[in-house]
Amino acid sequence: MLHWFHQYLRILGYKLLDTILTVDENGFPAAIDGKEISGDDPAARSQWIELVLIGHLFRLIGLIGRYGLQDEEALIALTHQYYKRRALRQQDSMAAFIIAERHFNIRDIFATDSAKGSCTIPNPLHEVYWDAALLRPQGLEPVFSKTYAKEQVTVSIRPFDLDRDLEMVHRWFHRDHAKAIWQMNWDLPRLEQFYRSLLADKAGHAYIGEINGIPTFNMEVYWATRDVVGNYFDVLPTDYGTHLFIAPTDKEKKFPSLTMQSILSWLFAHPKVGRLVGEGAIESMAALMNKIHVGFKLQGIIEMPHKKAHLNFCYREWYWEKFPANKPQELEPELTRTYPEATEIY
Q1: Cα-only R_g, the chain
Q2: Computed from CA positions of residues 152, 269, 260, 242, in that sequence, does the dihedral angle turn out positive or negative?
Q3: Predicted pLDDT at 333
Q4: What's the confidence (pLDDT) of residue 335?
Q5: From CA 33, how far away is CA 267, in angstroms rounded?
Q6: How far apart are CA 122 and CA 203, in angstroms?
Q7: Which pTM was predicted?
Q8: What are the CA-CA distances from residue 104 to residues 85, 88, 220 (Å)?
Q9: What is the largest distance, in Å, between two alpha-carbon atoms of the chain?
Q10: Distance from C-alpha of 156 to C-alpha of 219, rounded to nearest angstrom
Q11: Residue partners of 64: CB distance under 8 A and separation at least 6
């Protein structure tokens, strides 16, 4: 099925469809008649994206997946690779736009006001950078654990367990040092609603960190391109972010450096994570210093609806430069590892 779909992408080009697909004796796509649009024309490009890429191609992917003919994620990976190769090898500006654009504007068929007849949707091709292991973990067992022999400390990270952790983090958020920065000292039902929404959200997930088996920090991992922070810088689909709250105030129990090292070692072990993004409130200078300590670099201050924040980035190379002993042996290419059959087509 992947070979059939690849052939279909090739003959589809940038045509506006106006006829039935013809196939060869083997059932493979042979020709599609239609007007070929120019990627340099913004109006024509928008029309093709709405009618063909979104309205036809991704609908076709959905139908193929629904009937069990091929995994949808593999088809999306193949489509992304196809346009990426066109952009790089043929200097195809249309393909470059398709794979780079964060959102597409399309007509809102449900709008009653013609002045508001458009809507914005995330680029479906960026799903190739969505990491299921981080954002939709299966089970509640630890996803990371490391013992630091010199400090005699074991740091572990596990998915948030609503039944086990809700009342605990509720107490944490009512501590004085949490109220000022996190401002989540809500009543229990509201906090439960927040976590139920977060755990069901494809773009983020909550975790609990333990020091020597004792719950010590609360963390959220999020996909920055689908988060509000992505509106404040040139976000990439490989950008991931974290929110971190360390519950203890006793310096003997906090271990901020080992906590951050563990988080970065865990996240950078995932090939789909290209860059880590931080946007901590400017009032939290201790958190910023801890991030700089492990390799983050300050980019400036951004004004978000709910806070003024320090925007900071970290690449794995910056982290490994600070802590070379934490560098793993090798990272596999993400798409080859995830969908080897998609790469074998080329």
Answers
A1: 23
A2: negative
A3: 53
A4: 38
A5: 47
A6: 12
A7: 0.89
A8: 21, 21, 27
A9: 74
A10: 12
A11: 1, 5, 70, 72, 75
CB contact set of 73 (below 8 Å; sequence gap of 6+): 127, 128, 338, 339
Q: Give Cα 181 to chain centroid, integer Å.
A: 25
Give the pLDDT confidence of 153-172 residue by residue, as tens digits: 999 999 999 999 999 999 99
DSSP single-letter state for residue 303: E
Q: What angle do CA 96, 117, 111 make, to 5 degrees?
A: 130
204 pLDDT higher than 90: yes
At 339 the pLDDT is 44
* Distance separating alpha carbons of residues 288 and 293, to the nearest angstrom: 9
> Under 8 Å CB-to-CB from 302, ≥6 apart: which residues?
229, 232, 233, 279, 308, 309, 311
How many angstroms separate the Cα of 329 from the Cα of each of 121, 238, 258, 336?
Answer: 38, 21, 20, 18
HEC sequence for the chain:
CHHHHHHHHHHHCCEEECCCCEECCCCCEEECCEEECCCCCHHHHHHHHHHHHHHHHHHHHHHHHHCCCCCHHHHHHHHHHHHHHHHHHCCCHHHHHHHHCCEEEEECCCCCCHHHCEEEEECHHHHHHCCHHHHCCCCCCCCEEEEECCCCEEEEEEECCHHHHHHHHHHHCCCHHHHHHCCCCCCHHHHHHHHHHHHHCCCEEEEEEEECCEEEEEEEEEEHHHCHHHHHCCCCCCEEEEEEEECCCCHHHHCHHHHHHHHHHHHHCCCCCCEEEEEEECCCHHHHHHHHHHCCEEEEEEECCCCEEEEEEEEHHHHHHHCHHHCCCCCCCHHHHHCHHHHCCC
Grade residue 119 by pLDDT with cuts at 50, 70 and 90.
confident
Report residue 160: phi and psi, to 5°.
-65, 130
Residues contacting 142, CB < 8 A, separation 6+: 156, 157, 158
- Structure tokens given for 37: 């649009």
Give the whole-angstrom CA distance, residue 129 versus residue 240.
10
Per-residue pLDDT for 19 more than 90? no
| 167/47 Cα distance (integer angstroms) | 51
